[in-house]
What we know:
The protein is an alpha+beta fold.
Amino acid sequence: MSASTNAEIERLGAATYLSLTTFRKDGTPVATPVWASKDGEHLYVWTETDAGKIKRLRNNGRVLLAPCDSRGGLQGAQVAGTAVVLGTTSDVERLRRLHRAKYGLQFRLFDGFASLFRRARGHVVIEISVPEADAA
């Protein structure tokens, strides 16, 4: 990993919210504000198994990322990346630990409240890589 890639991962990982843009089959971009945690060379996001972004990522792993506010308003430059879906229970639990460490009480309250209404849909993790700046 180059210094420029590391700087992008650090910048994006430090943001409270990221705008995660995925692409429909026809190329239409769909942006969603998400929580993301950094671990090593990757960013990690979790979502429900049947979320639209998962279907789009399974068709096309290309994403755009940028810091944003809770409503998705961009607060920095977008960066191209690639994403893969991880679906094991250990992946989800690992991301829960990462989110608890980053978001603290806010995540604990969200996760606890959501568990009261959680359907049997389950969760998956999105692992995001940002290629080197000159390779993007």
